[in-house]
Write a structure and sequence with these properties.
This protein is an all-beta fold. It has one domain: Jelly Rolls. The chain is built from one helix and twelve strands; from the N terminus they run βαβββββββββββ. The two termini are 30 Å apart.
């Protein structure tokens, strides 16, 4: 029996559209510095700041079928590309049962110069880039108890598609 797909159309990443899920990181002012205030925000249990570089070698092909999501119960998680890159962001909120809420799925495409910080407990898909290879600085706070990541296999896959005017491969 075929499994039906929930289909979502990716939209341009803007601070207003992304606000329910976190913050968009980009320099928006005239000053020299733009502080990233949410990068290590977490519960008291997540007291160990951690930062690393992740490299994505395989380009994302669209449409993308998403079969799993992840969240971080104790901390925000930040992704900042180390070069000019377009990447796909797929997110959703938790339902009353704490699992991904299908009604809240959204997809975004970044512009070069943008990164994101996911709020604590926001479900998101892994790094999906159009321009490869791409390195990302990743930051979050950890508990040290190996309970910082929660993965969930979706009962109904989600297909992320691009608008006709968006970046495509």
């Amino acid at each position: 029996m075929a499994v039906s797909l929930l289909s979502i159309e990716a939209e341009p990443l803007t601070a207003a559209a992304f606000e329910p899920f976190g913050t968009v990181i980009e320099h928006t002012g005239e000053g020299r510095r733009h502080y990233i205030t949410e990068a290590f925000r977490g519960q008291a249990a997540a007291s160990e700041p951690s930062m690393w570089i992740s490299r994505v070698m395989t380009p994302t092909r669209m449409p993308l079928v998403i079969e799993w999501m992840e969240r971080h119960p104790f901390s925000t998680q930040t992704f900042v590309p180390m070069g000019p890159a377009h990447f796909l962001i797929v997110v959703c909120l938790s339902g009353e049962d704490g699992l991904p809420d299908p009604a809240s799925f959204r997809a975004f495409v970044s512009r070069p110069g943008q990164g994101v910080t996911y709020r604590r407990n926001v479900w998101h898909y892994g790094l999906s880039v159009f321009d490869t290879p791409t390195d990302f600085i990743v930051a979050m706070s950890l508990t040290g108890n190996k309970d910082d990541d929660v993965f969930f296999t979706l009962g109904q896959p989600v297909q992320a598609c691009l608008r006709s005017d968006e970046h495509s491969e």
